[in-house]
Structures are given as C-alpha cells and as structure tokens.
Specification:
Elements: H1 15-23, H2 29-47, E1 50-53, H3 55-71, E2 82-86, H4 113-120, E3 124-129, H5 163-170, E4 176-181, H6 187-192, E5 196-199, H7 220-225, E6 227-232, H8 235-245, E7 270-274, H9 284-299, E8 303-307, H10 311-339, H11 342-359, H12 364-386, E9 390-395, H13 411-420, H14 422-430, E10 434-442, E11 445-452, H15 458-469
Parallel strand pairs: 2-3, 2-4, 7-8, 7-9
Antiparallel strand pairs: 1-3, 4-6, 5-6, 5-10, 9-11, 10-11
Helix pairs in contact: 2-3, 10-11, 10-12, 10-14, 11-13
Family: Belongs to the amidase family.
Organism: Streptomyces griseoruber
InterPro entries: Amidase, Amidase_CS, Amidase_dom, AS_sf
Length: 480
C-alpha cells in the first residue's frame, strides 16, 4: 500500500480537533469514524494492532453521537472521538482474552469503570488492541492474536503490554487508546511508538471491573500498583482522555474520590535530571533525548538540575522484582503454566532469574514483608523531594525500542533489558504519576523521556510535558 499522511484527512486530526469539529458541526462523528475505519483497513492488516473491530457497533455509536449533537444535549469532552480499548479490560459484549487462546470467548458482562468513563465522555469505541499473553511482557505477541508491529520500524517492538494500543494510535487508526500499566505498560509502548502516555496516581482511575466468569483474587501488587491510563499523539489529547477515564469508584480497593487537581504552580518549578541510577548506562539516542528535554524545559523557564544518582529509584526498581514476581509466583503461576504460551513462560523464567540474582532463589516471607515495609519509607522520601513544585526527568528506557523477542534470546540479553527498564519498574512500586513524552526521531526511531511528579500532580506533569512537546517536530510514520 502507498498511504500518505494527508493532514486534511480526518484520521490525522487530534482528538481535541475532532471533538471540537463535531461539537460545532463542522464535521460529523460518522465522517470521523469512516475516516478512521478506512485507515484501519489500510494499515491494520500489516501491523496487527487492533485484533477486533466491530464496524456495525461503532457506526451505531457514531450515529447516536451525531443525533445528540443535533438534539443540543450536553456533550462530553471526547464526544464522537474514536478510541480503542485493550483486550485485557472488560468492555461489555467483547471478549477479555488477555491474549490467551483458552479465553478467546470469555465475554465481559459489562464495562470496567474506566471504559464506562470513556463512554460517558462521548468516545466511540472502535476496536480492541493487542497485548502480550497475560500482559506480562514488554513485547506484544501471543498465541491467540499474534504479533503487533511498530509502525516506525517493523523489526522493533511497539512495546508492551499496551503495544497494540500504541501501534494503533501512532499509525493513525485512532487518536486515543486505553492502556494499563504495572511495569511500564502504558509508558514504554508510548515511548516505543513516539506517543504521549500517562500513568496516573494509583486510585485516580478506578481499576474496578465486572468479574463475569473469571473471578480472580488479585495479589497486593496488582491491586495497589496497576493503573489504567491513555495513550495519545499530543499532550492535550492525553489530558482529555485522562479526565474522561477518571471515574471515582470506591469498589476499587485503592480508589480515591478525586479528579485530577488543577496545576497550582505559579511558575515553572524545578526539574531534577537523572540519567542513570547505576543499573544501565543510557544509549547515545537516549542521552540525546534527555539533553533535548532538559534544554526545552530550561527554555520554558524550569530550573534544571542534574543529579549524579538517585538511589531510591534503583532501590524501588529492585523491589519491583521482589514484590511483583513473588506475587505472580504465589497466585498466578498455576494459571500461566496451564494457559500460557511458550513466549510468556520463557519471559517469566527470565524475570525469576533476575529476581533470584537480586533476592535469592527463594526470598521467603521475611524478605517480602521487609520489602513492603521499605516501600513505605521510599514513598515518603520521594514525596518530600517532590512536594516543592519539583519533578524528575529520567529516560523511559536506557535503550532504544528493543528488537522483537529480545527477552526470549537468552538470559544475558534479558538481564540487560531488565536493567534498561529501571525507569519503568521503579514508578509502580511507589505509586506516583509519570508521563512518557516524545522528543523526536533518531535514526528513524522515536525517542522520549519520562517525567515523574508528586502524587495527584498529573496536571503539573502535563504542563511540563507540553513544554517539551512545544519544541518537538511533529511526525507520523509513513507506512508503505
């Protein structure tokens, strides 16, 4: 196919432009959907980003959106905007497959709270995005749906676990996508595909889902670390999606009845640049991205200070390998052994090996309890550091997007991947918000950085991300 990116085509518009155009009747929701469906038909067969598209269902939703405009009713911020949802999250009438063959017909009885929030915000739900098996890899491939490709470079991963979401947005199939994150699963795919991805503060976006046929008692890390968040091509689109997904719901054991707080800072604050915490030296393209982001923030008035190290982030990353993977071993391992494919089993063995190098082959209950106790101390220390209008600038990963199946190519390579992902693994342990924002291309691959802010300071991060975005050349992959 020879598909050029013509800005006049509706699928090229931002979500904000689409919503405004529909609201003012410059365009219709039906026309926007038709453009996005056309783009899906052109590029999805090659990328395999969306594994289910129900055209009739989406067309009916767009028709209803246009009828609401004509009736003059109050419209949500995403009214008529096409959005994809991830196959590991409940959407009524659709399978929650988790990329597992045995779950292919596991139909959700209703919407998860965050999906309901997108509907109430006016979104037209268009397709279901691919994920690795059980969403436990940084690579998107599984025995049920197959592999998703990165639209910038088909030899590189689109990231995981929200790799289908990232590939779909980067390729122009939808302007926004839903994802979730317990170890970088929103931030890393956004980075790999040149997008903005937000991991909000734990509890901001409800994790509640109707259980249906598969009710699982999730372990403590999944309850208190996993979050839902959006992927988008622009910071403002990510903000719109986050506000719609924020649905205070106390059925989530860690849910909080809050909406994102306005950015109260009177002027740009302080930025602490952390390149390395002693785990993985950044590759040259990663160093370039950090330099560019620091310069752009400085131009915007932020006081940028480089730190030689920030040991608590390295310590939090090590705790991720103890607490999360001991939880998986104790609760989910039998299900993975029964239903998982060879890829997830090999990758999981790599994770256990990394953890064993840090904590021993059998850490035991004492180490697990001490790890949870230490986590609270690290949270307090980081919150004190970030309380005074301060944010932290880090890599997203110490490496450019990984080659496909790099985690399956031997333990030595897996060890390097695990070390490179320290910015992804430290944040969930601590429960702070973080955002991945692009900085441009190097050798044809996207680059980006991560910003970490104080708890419930999402708007502060979005403001800083917008300052980086303002000096970043806008680009979309040209798929041929």
């Amino acid at each position: 196919m020879n598909q050029s990116n013509n800005p006049s085509e509706l699928w090229c518009w931002t979500a904000g432009q689409m919503a405004e155009g529909i609201r003012t009747r410059e365009i219709s929701a039906a026309a926007v959907l038709d453009s996005c469906l056309g783009r899906i038909e052109q590029v999805n067969p090659a990328l395999n980003a969306l594994v289910e598209v129900r055209r009739d269902e989406a067309v009916e939703a767009a028709r209803e959106a246009d009828a609401a405009v004509a009736a003059g009713v109050d419209l949500g911020p995403l009214h008529g905007v096409p959005v994809s949802t991830k196959v590991n999250t409940s959407q009524r009438g659709h399978a929650v497959t988790h990329g597992v063959t045995a779950f292919a017909d596991l139909t959700a009885p209703g919407d998860a709270a965050c999906i309901q929030g997108l509907r109430e915000g006016g979104a037209v739900l268009v397709g279901r995005s691919n994920t690795p098996t059980f969403s436990l890899r940084w690579f998107t491939d599984n025995a049920l749906h197959g592999r998703t490709l990165n639209p910038w470079d088909p030899s590189r991963t689109p990231g995981g676990s929200s790799g289908g979401a990232a590939s779909a947005v980067a390729a122009g199939m939808v302007p926004l996508a839903h994802g979730n994150d317990i170890g970088g699963s929103v931030r890393y795919p956004a980075h790999s595909c040149g997008l903005v991805g937000i991991r909000p503060t734990v509890g901001m976006v409800s994790g509640w889902e109707p259980t249906g046929e598969l009710e699982v008692d999730l372990p403590p890390t999944f309850q208190s670390w996993a979050v839902h968040g959006p992927l988008a091509r622009t910071v403002e689109d990510a903000r719109l999606a986050l506000h719609s997904m924020t649905t205070p719901d106390l059925r989530d054991p860690f849910g909080v009845p809050l909406a994102p707080a306005p950015d109260q800072s009177q002027a740009p604050g302080r930025v602490l640049l952390v390149r390395d915490v002693g785990l993985a030296k950044p590759q040259p393209a990663v160093g370039w991205a950090l330099d560019e982001a620091a310069a752009r923030l400085s131009h915007a008035g932020y006081a940028v200070e480089e730190l030689e190290d920030l040991p608590l982030l390295a310590e939090a990353s090590r705790l991720w390998f103890l607490l999360l993977w001991e939880d998986v071993r104790a609760t989910l391992q039998p299900m993975i052994e029964q239903f998982g494919d060879d890829g997830i089993k090999t990758s999981l063995a790599g994770m256990y090996s990394v953890s064993a190098d840090m904590w021993g082959a059998a850490p035991g209950l004492d180490a697990y309890i001490r790890g949870w106790a230490r986590r609270g101390t690290l949270i307090r220390k980081l919150q004190e550091m970030l309380a005074d209008n301060t944010i932290i600038l880090t890599p997203v990963s110490a490496e450019v997007p990984f080659e496909h199946d790099a985690d399956l190519s031997g333990q030595e390579r897996f060890d390097r991947i695990a070390a490179a992902q320290w910015p992804m693994t430290c944040v969930p342990v601590l429960g702070f918000p973080a955002i991945s924002v692009p900085t441009g291309l190097q050798d044809g691959l996207p680059t980006g950085v991560q910003l970490i802010g104080g708890r419930f300071r999402e708007e502060q991060l979005l403001t800083a991300a917008a300052a980086i975005e303002a000096e970043t050349p806008q680009a979309m992959p040209h798929l041929t």
